[in-house]
Design a protein that fits this description.
Elements: E1 4-11, E2 14-20, H1 30-37, E3 47-52, E4 61-67, E5 72-73, H2 77-91, E6 95-100, E7 103-109, E8 115-121, E9 143-144, E10 147-148, E11 151-154, E12 158-163, H3 172-180, E13 190-198, E14 201-208, E15 212-214, H4 218-230, E16 237-242, E17 245-251, E18 256-261, E19 264-271, H5 273-276
Parallel strand pairs: 2-3, 4-6, 12-13, 14-16
Antiparallel strand pairs: 1-2, 1-19, 3-4, 4-5, 6-7, 7-8, 8-18, 9-10, 11-12, 13-14, 14-15, 16-17, 17-18
Length: about 280
Amino acid sequence: MNGVPFIKMQGLGNDFVVVDARARSFSLTPAAARQIADRRLGVGCDQILVIEAPRDPLAAAYLRIVNADGSEVGACGNGTRCVAQVLLSQRQTDEVVIETAGGRLVCGRAGDGLIAVDMGPVRRHWRDIPLSRPVETAHLPLAIGPLADGVAVNVGNPHAVFFVADADRVALADVGPRVETDALFPERTNVEVVSVLAPNRLRMRVWERGSGITRACGSGACAALAAAHGRGLADAAAEVILDGGTLRIAMRSDGHVQMTGAAAVSFVGELPPAILAA
């Protein structure tokens, strides 16, 4: 049996193993996903992205997003940009629709090699995050370490955004998993710590559920601006500075949030049968 071809891609250092499963079946157990994602024993990545045949006739493909711990999620902004780049190149077009568990995402070329993704509407109701009980999502009744008075939003997946004086000084490896697994979040949550540098510039670090600290998170950057704009701390459009680089995020008049950034191929290879049998 031959190996399964993959593309290693990254968006601002948020890295992915991309498998095109439209022409051949591809099964992935949680154990195999953990093996692939392992940076010493596997390929190494934050998420595995599986491109499947679309369920929606308007979409070019369906995107499955699997975390490094083997769990699946509904949205990944940086990963969507990477897959959009693959599909745009294959189809020789300027726009594609990608179907995900979190909704239909319209992606297009934005010039200078950048990809723009309409990440859909920002959901703010407690049931839509989801939270385990009715609370005010604009001011979460949660305090863990230096993090308090957070904002919960859903941008295809749940996010808890906390504003701090200096995001770089937060011990994110300590407080991130404690917030992620708090009982308030029945499906766990991504955790963003954000410093407002100016109305059009935010500094953000992220703890991603199922993956830990990553160099960038596209949906997290969207959540950060949505939370900051909702609090009156930021304009409707801003640069969000992450460990791996900068994303352009904009709140649109229709309630959707748009993300623009780079995506790049690192290398290509094959997943050996042994790693998939884990």
